[in-house]
Amino acid sequence: MMLKQGVSSQRQHLVNEPLFCDTTERLPLLRHKWKNRKGEGLLSSVPGGKNYTLVFEGDSLPDGHSARNVVKVASFAELMLYYGLLGASCEMYISPEYRYSHFELLKKLEDVQISLANEALAEAEAETVTSLLRKIPLDISGLLESPLAVRDEDVAPGIVDPEVVHKTNSANALLSEPYFAGRLVYYNMLRHTEELKFDHESDHVQGMLLLEAMRQAGIATTHLSSGLPAAGGMTLMSYCTSFYNYIEHTAPVIMRSYTSYTIPREMGEKDSFAICQVFQWGKLCAEATLSAVVFMNSERYDRHRTRTEKLSARNKRLFMSKVQAMSKTVDP
Prior knowledge:
Layout: E1 43-44, E2 52-56, E3 70-73, H1 76-86, E4 90-93, H2 96-101, H3 103-110, H4 114-122, H5 126-135, H6 140-144, E5 179-181, E6 184-188, H7 207-226, E7 233-243, E8 254-259, E9 270-280, E10 283-295, H8 298-330
Helix pairs in contact: 1-4
C-alpha cells in the first residue's frame, strides 16, 4: 500500500548573506556557506515547505512567511528528538539574525543526520517523549493528503491486518490501516469489537474501548514502525492513561502512536515503551504510555510464559501454605 508523505521543498544555497542586528548598524558579512543540498539535511532557508517547521525559542519566521505547523524548540538536544520523531516531514528554519549570534550552533546543525537523531531518540525516557508529543500539533494538512478519515464525511480506510494487533479475527481489530510520518504512525480508531460488550448505549465512546484501542496501537506500531516480526510477542508491564475530553460517535477519531522499540542486535527480549494519543477535531482527548517486554519470536515469548507460570505456581503454593497455617491457629 503506497502511503503519502509530507510535501518536499527545494532548498536554496546561502552564501555571504548580509546580516543585521536589532539596531540599525550593519554587521560584518558572515562568510560562510550554508550546506543545503537538494533533498538533504534538516535546514531550510525558506520556511513552510514541510509539514512541520522547527524554530528555536527566541527566533521567528520572517515577515510575510507562514508554515503549516510551527514547533518551538528549546535546545539542540530537544531539536534532535523532534527530528527523530518527525523525520522527513520536518524542517529547521533559522533567521539570518539568529544564525549570526549562534554561529557555532549552525555549524552543528549542518552536520545533523537522521541516524544521529534516531540514536538520541532511542535514549530518551518515556516522559520526555510524551512531553514533546504534546507540543507537536496534529498535522491536519498531511492527514488530508493521507488515506485516513479526517472530516465527518470521510470514509476510513480498511481494517489493519489483525495479525499486527495480535488478533485472529479482524472484527476484533480497532485500528484502520496506518499512515506513516517519520517515526509517528497514525490510525483511525474503529468503534466496534466483538470482544467488548456494554449493557447500555452511551452518548460518547466508552473508556474501555479507548483503552483497548490504545493497547492495540502500541502493539501495531511496534510491528509496523520498528519491524518486530509477526512471530514476535510482548508482555505488558504498565499502562498509564489520561483522559482529557469526551469522544463523540459522530466524527472520525485519529490515533497517533510512537514506539521506542528497535530490533536488538541479539535476538533476546528488550524493554520498550509506546505512546498513543487520541484526537477528535484536532483536539487531544486521551493519551497513554505503555511499557512492555518485547520478544523477537514466539519461542522466547513461550519460554517467558513458562517461567511466569512456574513463578505463579510457586507463589500459590506459598500463599496456600500460609493460609493453612493460619487456619489451624484460628479454628477451635
